[in-house]
Amino acid sequence: MRVLITGGAGFIGSNIAKSLQERYPSSKVYVLDDFSSGHFKNLLGFKGEVITGDIRDAELWDWITKEYEFDVVFHKAAITDTTITDQRLMMEVNAESFRHVLRAVLSWKAKLIYASSAGVYGNVPPPMREEGELKPENIYGFSKLVMDRIATNFMEKYPHIKVVGFRYFNVYGQGEAYKGKSASMIYQIYKKLVLGERPRLFKWGEQKRDFVYIKDVVKANMLALEKDVSGIFNVGTGTARSFNEIVEILSRELSIKTEVEYFDCPYDFYQKYTQADITRIKEYLGYTPDYTLEEGIKDYLKELSSCL
Ligand SMILES: NC(=O)c1ccc[n+]([C@@H]2O[C@H](COP(=O)([O-])OP(=O)(O)OC[C@H]3O[C@@H](n4cnc5c(N)ncnc54)[C@H](O)[C@@H]3O)[C@@H](O)[C@H]2O)c1
Fold first, then answer.
1. Atom of ligand 1 at shortest distance to CA of 178?
2. Do residues 249 and 107 both lie within one domain?
């Protein structure tokens, strides 16, 4: 199996790369990344080839298409800082580049598994359903919605090519540290606690998110690889948990007492409550999450403490 992972130096992409290497030792895995938010340290232990380049570059895609042949493409490269407001940049990197990916996939007759986002839902009433209302609050969410529409049209036009889109909810786990301020709240709060600082939350910490552990996200990607299915699916746990609960769990696990500092949310495009309806992914891919928030944090802390 020959696999291309765009965004493979990033959090999710590097975990997929390493998992593929373990599960399919005879596969040839290639990473394409421009290292804008990814990090080489995520790829320590990865034995495949790395192509350094920008997914917006049409000439690069022409060369890759001619030079290589892939059976599967995991497309994870994107601007992942959801606070970026440069609309043109966000649309070019996330949405327009997707057309290059699709053209390459078509020429190779490869399977495509790409990253969309729960950002497509905005503040619609939870739980969020794939076929429900889509009202992104920011240009990041909009760029992912445009990707989903491009993918849907592609699936209709080329039904023989399998395409799976994943609307990830809030992913946390090993490999996210290099995302800086875009890393999960679990990582941000963990860092504050171990530094002896007070965690800072938007007033009053009751905003809820569907936090999904990286090992469950990798599991979903592996299921998509194995199954002969096309479609767009939510990837979450099906449960929403508050930021205050994260502080409670981490304080308990780390035996650190703390008081939260609450401050006003500076964004007018903030998602207040996300919760995935995971009925569809259960039905079509046989996916169920293995980790509750408590279990995921416990597992993650083992990895984080070994890095201290
Ligand atoms: N982590 C989450 O909670 C989450 C939630 C929803 C959706 N997603 C999506 O999942 C995918 C992976 O996210 P992540 O959390 O691993 O983020 P990440 O920032 O760690 O990974 C993105 C990778 O893409 C690369 N990249 C960015 N622009 C590029 C370009 N123009 N050309 C080539 N490479 C480029 C970056 O260097 C980075 O390695 C993204 O598409 C993201 O939108 C993630």
1. 20
2. no
DSSP per-residue string spanning 164-222: EEEEE-EEESTT-GGGGGGS-HHHHHHHHHHTTPPPEEETTS--EE-EEEHHHHHHHHH
State whether 105 and 21 are in the same domain.
Answer: yes
Looking from the CA of residue 97, the nearest atom of ligand 1 is: 31
Same domain, yes or no: 124 and 234 = yes
**Would you say residue 308 has pLDDT above 60?**
no
Considering the domain architecture, whether residues 127 and 27 belong to the same structural domain is answered as yes
* Catalytic annotation, residues: 140, 179
* 31 and 116 share one domain: yes
Tell me which residues have their CB closer than 6 angstroms to ligand 1. 7, 9-13, 33-38, 54-56, 76-80, 93, 115, 117, 168, 170-171, 179
User: Which residue CA neighbors atom 9 of ligand 1 most closely?
Assistant: 115
- Structure tokens that stand for 82 in this block: 């959801």
C-alpha angle 116-118-124 in degrees, rounded to nearest 5: 140
Angle at which helices 58-67 and 97-108 cross, to 10°? 20
Which is the closest atom of ligand 1 to the Cα of 35?
37
Residue 61 has what pLDDT? 98
Say yes or no: 262 and 225 in one domain.
no
pLDDT in tens, 243-288: 999 999 999 999 999 999 999 999 877 888 999 999 999 999 999 9
Q: What is the pLDDT of residues 203-258, one digit of tens each?
A: 999 999 999 999 999 999 999 999 999 999 999 999 999 999 999 999 999 999 99
Using pLDDT thresholds of 50, 70 and 90, give the confidence band for residue 307.
low
Domain that holds residue 257: 177-208+240-273+294-306
Q: In this structure, are 116 and 87 located in the same domain?
A: yes
- Maximum Cα interatomic distance, the chain, rounded to a whole number of Å: 58
| Ligand 1 midpoint to CA 259 (Å) | 32
CA of 36 to the centre of ligand 1 (A): 9
Residues 184 and 281 in one domain: no
